[in-house]
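hi!! sorry for the late reply, been swamped w classes. u asked for the two structures so here they r. pasted raw, havent cleaned anything up. first the sequence of the first protein and right below it the tokens
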Amino acid sequence: MTRKITPNEIVACARLWIGTPYHHQASRSGVGTDCLGLIRGVYRDLYADEPEMPPPYSPDWAEVPDPDGHRVETMADAARRHLREIDKAEAGPGDVLLFRMVPGAVAKHAAIKSFEGRMIHACSGRAVAEVHMGSWWPRHLAFVFRFPGEFN
């Protein structure tokens, strides 16, 4: 049985990562993380285990088509295996947000929604931060997922 967690617990857990330096493919609070590593780390912090380890990936992984020339929603597909996909209009605190950085591209950036139009994320060259979403991020939102057992 999956432990029941609240959106407040998820946001509080994600906030503990604020200030963690950006480091590609890392997932260690206070040491280094990328956007996926933040989601993985919060999952570990909440559930004690990580459901799957991602394979090594390059910074431009989303721009590289599969062998058949297709662009694959790798991040969204992995999220579907372990989180519950919800409608974008239902996004609330504690939910995982996946963004398309360029219209028509695959989703390649992840964040955790906090409160009042804010999100917590890791960006290349910057430490994990809680930022205002403004108008750019909502326009690029592609998928929303809820952690297992979340009350919302």
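now the second protein. again sequence first, tokens right under
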Amino acid sequence: MQDREGATGARTPARAPGPLYSAIWRWHFLAGLLCAPFILMLAVTGLLYIYKDELNDLVFADRYIVVPGEGQPLAASALVAIAQDAVPGQAASELVTPVDARHAAIVKIGGQDVFVDPWSGAVLAVMAPGEQFMEVARDIHSLEYLGVTMNRVIEAVGGFVMVLVVTGVFLWWPRGRRGGVITVRGRPAQRLWWRDVHAVTGIFGALMIFFLALSGMPWSGYWGGKFQQFAAEMGMGYPAAAWDDVPVSDLVMGDVASDTSWSTALATVPQSGDAGGAAPIGLDRAVAILAELGVVPGYAIAIPGGPEGVYTASVFPHDLALQRIVHLDQYTGAPLADLTLEDYGAFAVAMEWGINIHMGQEWGLLNQLLMTATTLALMVSVVTGVVMWWRWRPDGRLGLPPAPADRRVYVGLWGIAIVFGVLFPISGLAILAMIAADLLLIRWVPPLRRAFS
């Protein structure tokens, strides 16, 4: 900061920061202010999604929780038939099997999710995914709810979060200062207190906040899609050799499964061989084969949509080691491909591991608490930064930290922005636009210069 506050809140002169410090402070301030509402939205919706299963079972128990009956639950084919009666004229595309005896089965049919009690056969609910709270929270988290353009905005914000962490660490660095490094000075009525809470919370959460932003990028619309395609083409994603000895279709996992892993979303789906007049094995036999293969409950099984289709079972449980994808020939029941985490390369495993931790799934409650602490630290950093700006901003002005007198420092910032833009194009373009606006508009247009000063 360019000034210090004593215990009473009065400001005393401090040594003027160097040009690099001034430039990074200005950049950190403007980026943080622009991204604050989006970061808060990401933190709140992310926190909700960390406890997705718990909230669904508690708040929406009427459709997720059932009372186990005596004997055996209904067969898979019976559950699908019940769902088709609830949504007449449509063919079921997928059955999500219950994770245990207390949970409902879900049949996906005609763009609807039909929740069925596997013991009584009662239809508990018929809802489109867009009507379900957690699906809406996930779509808001990525802003897909508001279309492609806003999804790109969130992608840019994800990159900005990484920039804010790095610049924040630079600004926090003690430089001989003792207070406000790992302790908070002053009282809530003072700007110093808000500054220290902002800095100390940010530094303790910096590593995990950076990880959270980075591990979320694979699911982003532009960068994530391009990187996923690159990984698949370079053989860094799913193990393509698994399909060397089986006939393949023109479909990929994302076409047949409602949920898939990042590494396998573009994996080609095999196709069933020549039936030779044989009848399909049927859904119940396919489910029995999957049980024999040891696929854990809670998997989704995609139902063949034509004579060459396959039964595709996929399960992505909290324990990453149990992740599995199995394709069964619909006539013979033979496994055409059976993929576990052990089949993936080191790169794909690292990506799946990062995503699982991002979602709070890998280490059970410990992972959830770690992600909770991280999102709360993110919220505190944003709120304290905004409050500090709002309460102590100059009247009628934005209060942007002063630009460095030495313009040469911007050469380095341009270089950093270009490198970052190569790695994360959407975020890089947003950073370049921000620097250009600062240099070409805010500096030279008097009304803007006054408003932003």
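hope this helps!! also noticed smth abt the second:
The chain has 15 helices and twelve strands.
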